[in-house]
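A reminder before we start the practical. When you read a complex entry, don't treat the lines as separate problems. The point of joint prediction is that each chain is placed relative to the others, so the output describes one connected object in space. Small molecules and nucleic acid strands, if listed, are placed in the same frame. In the example below there are two entries. Take a minute to note the order of the lines before looking further.
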Amino acid sequence: MQLALFLIFGGLAVAGALNLLLQKHPINSALSLVVVMMSLAVLYWSLGAEFLAAAQVIVYSGAIMVLFVFVIMLLNAGEEERTTGSRAAYIAGFPGAAAIFCLLSFVFLSESKALGLANLGGQLSHATNNISEISSVLFTKLLLPFEVTSILILVAILGAVVLARKEQ
Amino acid sequence: MVPIAYYLVLAAILFSTGVAAFLIKRNIITVFMSIELMLNAVNLTFVAFAHMWHQVQGQIFVFFVMVVAAAEAAVGLAIIIAIFRTRQTLNVDQINLMKS
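Here is the predicted structure of the whole assembly.
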């Protein structure tokens, strides 16, 4: 069951990521990134993180990607053109990314025994469910970082308004 | 029953695709989207390790990463709008004011 979920949605995520890389038009890239985020939400759920699965759908696919699509429509972004700079990026980009992937997957697969297996469902050691455990830690031990993030969001709102405002 | 290593390899695939897209894409909005893809890949490793250790702290870290990503997206897209207003282009090769 979990292997089937992993194969279907992991394959969907990889296909979406490759589609982001290969598409020329930014709106196609944005929609394939939505596919990646929705399939990652299913994978979070299969790893027992129900709250994060919901937050992924609401925050990432619901808010951030809508913002991206709005900006693409607002700026009327067309297909990207190839320039001389992008040829150098091709030469450096593909081998670099392949080297990062080979290094990471070599480390993960050689430590595969030590990492263990994932089972479907809630896996926390001393909790009744995922959301109550997250909220109890977030509002007791990590109350100060939580409040600081609210200030960060406030600063980001003000910064976005100031930066995107028309010059007088 | 899926080995945790498979989830980590999936995250490695997504991360390296994000790195490649960051380097190859010429549209500034797509470059910004590949940063979001890399953040998502890192979030997947956090959730996988939280599952492995039966602890909730990794999931809380993902929550904070999501908050920072939302703030970063708002400010970054505002900067992109300001760049487009002054330079009339979204191609990163033509935004070379700081090149000598």
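Discuss with your neighbour: Chain B has a mean pLDDT of 91. What might explain this?
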